[in-house]
Automatic annotation (TrEMBL):
SMART domains, sorted: DUF1704 (SM01154)
Keywords: Hydrolase, Metalloprotease, Protease
The protein, known as: Flavohemoglobin expression-modulating QEGLA motif protein
Pfam families xrefs: MATCAP
């Protein structure tokens, strides 16, 4: 390799290292294009000046990373190997897809060539998508004994080199059905092939990122549409309709929590309480049928297809959980939806309980405010937010059939038996109204309902933000931190197979919680048959503190009910004006609280929030 070539190659490798887009043209040879640094490359080697295939050349332009070059008088492998190796080192794997015009003996319209066993699942996925997109195109897979490549060109990799599973090479040979006997392009057919392959390659690369690399596929924004398609809107609307047919939290929260506590106390804490739940008013099988009748596979954009598919799976799991209340399968569903307790999270929770003093009973009766007084405070906060946007609204209801407080679709529900100390009340207002209601309202202003209902797995970020809001307004005291940590311990104890009584006794005897506080913690964790959701409060708070420490923007989190790894998508959609900025800003993000936010960034650890 000449010094000039070496210098050019180093420029490309440096761009990969910095994640900077790079375009490099070799005069009279070809182009290396990385519109985005991704661990895959589409390759088209032109066999001769008069044999350049327009469809393949145009297809290369649709990809984030592509190489179009001569196959003659150019050693592509000298450039490709260090580039592919660098991508594999950076991302965990690299996929090379080379396309070429098939010879006249090929019967199939498209043949997918695979020479590595590890690549077969991707090839089958690619084939399946082509069949769905264009039934008139006949496609099959060839499990090549040799390296997949066009005939008569230098090999890019030897079979021995491809034993390194970090580099995957797939070939696509395509019959020129879109060119007639006089070498004239047939416009309808060439568009069919180009659009079909562009869609299916986009999905192929997305699946490769998701399964074969350590990247978060949703963060890659692969060829996202400039506007939402009618099919996207239709599926979003359908998912919203199915979501509103059942209220998950209400359906898994006991109707008789207060009465169960009184009976538990009367039984001297030795008899497991019996919880009653709302009757199931939806048919899970019908909900599932409607969910899986949605044509998500027909969405061109792989990112939106992934988000919708993810939300469908979550709704499927949630409706199954409601049907499985009181059964072992409920806990299995909870682990799928809300996750497990990691060792790091468990140790952090234990450490918080060890370094903080147990709560003391409130002696003065007037230190507590009633449910109705708390409801008045909430309504006052709603009026404050309405001053920013007249459409903002949140009904505040005092009810007999719930436990504690909860927000459901923008409505604040408060238990008739609920009481809270005056010091905690303002913090709780910012938790429930300032976070849960505000993000619901802001999400409703977006063109997709999924941002108000919640993208799959939004709870971690949402609860972390809500708890941090308590700290910002001065209401996250040690007692509250202890409760959040105890929830993690209770979830872990439940997952280990311990009973309600065992976990209650542990919190009272080992960690000195008051019996009523311990009962509430354990009831929330054991409801329905085992709900792991309560571990997300501490997990989300810790993740959010790290997010702020790294200098990220907290205002972006108010867009709707989102999760952290969706933020690259959201930034992209904001730039394209598909999404709009938050319509309402909560009180705790006003300038008067800037010092508190700076304090959190400076401290950078949950343990430094302990008073």
């Amino acid at each position: 390799m000449t010094p000039d070539k070496n210098k050019a190659l180093q420029k490309i490798l440096s761009a990969i290292n910095k994640r900077s887009p790079v375009h490099y043209q070799i005069p009279n040879i070809g182009k290396f294009i990385f519109n985005k640094i991704v661990p895959y490359i589409f390759i088209y080697r032109v066999p001769s000046p008069d044999k350049r295939d327009k469809m393949l050349a145009d297809l290369a332009k649709t990809e984030n990373a592509s190489i179009v070059c001569k196959s003659y008088d150019f050693n592509l492998e000298e450039w490709l190997k260090p580039i592919a190796q660098k991508l594999a080192e950076e991302f965990g794997a690299c996929l090379l897809v080379e396309a070429w015009v098939a010879d006249h003996n090929q019967k199939e319209d498209i043949m997918i060539h695979v020479g590595q066993k590890d690549l077969l699942p991707l090839a089958e996925y690619f084939q399946k998508n082509i069949k769905k997109e264009a039934r008139e195109i006949f496609v099959s897979i060839a499990k090549d004994l040799n390296i997949p490549q066009p005939i008569g060109v230098p090999i890019l990799y030897s079979k021995k080199e491809l034993q390194n599973k970090q580099i995957l090479l797939m070939g696509i040979s395509i019959k020129q059905n879109y060119v007639d006997s006089d070498d004239l392009v047939l416009p309808m057919l060439i568009r069919l092939y180009r659009e079909t392959l562009a869609k299916c390659l986009s999905r192929l690369f997305f699946e490769f990122l998701r399964v074969y690399t350590h990247l978060n596929a949703t963060a890659q924004r692969l060829n996202f549409h400039q506007e939402l398609t009618p099919l996207m809107n239709e599926i979003d609307k359908s998912l919203a309709q199915e979501s509103t047919k059942f209220d998950f939290l209400l359906m898994v929260t006991p109707l008789n929590a207060h009465e169960a506590w009184l009976q538990f106390k009367k039984d001297k804490y030795w008899k497991t309480p019996k919880f009653l739940y709302r009757p199931l008013h939806v048919d899970p099988d019908l909900v599932k049928r409607r969910l899986y009748n949605l044509r998500i596979e027909d969405i061109y954009d792989p990112t939106m297809a992934y988000i919708f598919r993810d939300k469908r799976t979550e709704l499927d799991n949630m409706v199954s959980m409601i049907a499985d209340r009181g059964k072992d399968d409920f806990l299995h569903g909870s682990l799928q939806v809300f996750g497990n307790v990691s060792e790091k999270l468990y140790k952090s929770a234990m450490a918080i309980l060890m370094v903080t003093e147990p709560e003391e009973p409130i002696k003065k009766a007037d230190d507590y405010i009633s449910a109705n007084e708390f409801a008045k405070m909430a309504r006052d906060e709603v009026k404050f937010l309405q001053s920013q946007n007249a459409e903002f609204n949140s009904p505040v209801r005092v009810r007999e059939d719930i436990s504690g407080v909860m927000v459901n679709r923008g409505v604040l529900n408060i238990s008739k038996e609920y009481k809270v100390t005056r010091k905690r009340a303002e913090a709780l207002i910012q938790h429930e109204i300032g976070t849960h209601v505000v993000t619901y309202f802001n999400g409703r202003q977006q063109p997709l309902s999924i941002f108000s209902l919640g993208v799959p797995g939004y709870e971690e970020l949402q609860e972390g933000l809500a708890v941090l809001a308590e700290y910002i307004v001065g209401g996250l005291n040690n007692d509250r931190l202890r409760i959040i940590a105890a929830r993690v311990i209770a979830v872990q104890n439940m997952l280990l197979g311990n009973s309600f009584i065992d976990t209650f006794s542990m919190l009272v005897d080992q960690y000195n919680f008051l019996p009523e506080t311990a009962f509430t913690i354990v009831m929330r964790v054991y409801r329905g048959g085992g709900l792991t959701k309560d571990a997300l409060y501490l997990k989300g708070l810790m993740e959010l503190i790290t997010y702020l420490k790294d200098g990220n923007n907290v205002h972006l989190l108010m867009m709707g009910k989102i999760r952290k790894d969706y933020l690259p998508i959201i930034k992209d959609l904001l730039q394209k004006e598909i999404l709009i900025p938050p319509a309402v800003t909560p009180r705790y993000l006003f300038p008067e609280f800037s010092p508190q936010w700076k304090d959190v960034k400076r401290k950078g650890s949950i343990f430094k929030l302990i008073q």
